[in-house]
Amino acid sequence: MTLLELFRLLKKHLQIVVLLPVVCALVVGLYSAIFVRNQYTATSSMYVLAQNDSSNSSSLYSDLNASQMLTNDVAKLLKSDRIINQVGSEVGIEELKGYSVDVTSETTSRVITLSVTGPDPQTAADIVNRMVEDVSGVAQSVMNIESVNPVDMAQAPEKPSGPNRLLYTLVAFVAGLFAAIAIVVVSDMLNTKVRGSEDLEELIDVPIIGRIPNVQGGR
To answer: What's the rounded Cα separation, in Å, for the pair 170 and 176?
Structure first.
């Protein structure tokens, strides 16, 4: 099937090509608006301070690579079961179910960014602040770290960070469009009726020498 034949085929079934994507987009849009809850993200930054840390120190912790390894350890500690369970018991949410924790650290800095996303903005902020407090105590007891100091405390976000309902709707529309094209093409391939002289020539392998036209109003 050539591209021109495909366009003609889609034009012939224009109703389903237009209707199916619109229906898919409306269904997904309504579902995400009614049943999918807003998500809020609270964020805080913290600085990892090693013991005997000074700008003039010649110790191991003055080396950038060693400092980065220490920062990575604290980042992993933030997502450990010990911190998750401890904070969960403090805020009354077992294992922080319904809330996702994201930890990022730069390769050239000791600053760690902690983000918590969940359905309640104030709870998300409380979880972040509790995690910053708890990880400092745990890091001091299990690592050679002086403290983990918060750069800024998390505040309850006023606007939701997700879901991206517009993106969901656009994806549903595109998926419906591809589905409509597939349905039209497959149904045309499965249709074995003779629909013209070209189909007849392919079937009987005999050239057509004449045609009888349809005449409206004739006998």
So the answer is: 10
Query: Using an 8 Å Cβ cutoff, are 29 and 165 in contact?
Result: yes
The tokens describing 44, both together, are 């805080």
Residues 48 and 200 sit within 8 Å (Cβ to Cβ): no
Contact 29, 175 (CB under 8 A): no
Nearest residue to 163 via CA among 40, 22, 27, 42: 40
Q: What is the torsional sign of CA 78, 81, 84, 85? A: negative
Provide the 10 A C-beta neighbour count for residue 106.
11
Interatomic CA distance for residues 26 and 28, integer angstroms: 6
Is residue 183 within 8 Å of 16, Cβ to Cβ? yes
Q: Is the pTM of this model over 0.85?
A: no
pLDDT in tens, 54-82: 554 444 445 556 667 788 888 999 999 99
**Per residue in 9-60, pLDDT tens?**
888 889 999 999 999 999 999 999 999 999 999 999 998 877 655 554 444 4
**Which one is the CATH code of 40-152: 3.40.50.2000, 3.40.800.10, 3.40.50.12160, 3.30.70.1130?**
3.30.70.1130
Asked if the peptide bond before residue 163 counts as cis, ω within 30 degrees of 0, the response is yes
Measure the CA–CA gap between 187 and 13, rounded to whole angstroms: 11
